[in-house]
Write a structure and sequence with these properties.
6 helices; globular; single chain; 93 residues; mainly alpha
Length: 93
Amino acid sequence: MSGKKDLSKDVLSAVNKKTGKPVTENAVKKLASGVTEETMQSEEELRKLIMSVSSMAKVPVTEKTINDIVGAVKKSGMNINNLEMLMKLMLKK
C-alpha cells in the first residue's frame, strides 16, 4: 500500500511543481471522492472533472486541451481504475 501512497504524494508534488501553486492533499481527495465510473464514460462529466481540476490548481485549460483529454480517455477506454494515465496526460499539458 505504501507504493500507492507514494504515488499520490508524487502526483501532488508534480502538480504543485508544474503549476507553481499549492494544491492540498485534502483538496485532491475531496475531488477524487466524487469521481465514479460514470465520470470516466460521460463526456459531460469528464469535462466537469477537467474543469474542477483546472480550477483547483488555478491553471486555465483551453478547449483544445479539454478536447484532447476527453478524446484520449474515450479512445483508450480508460476506466476509473486507471486514473494515473489521466493524471500523466494532464500534467504534460
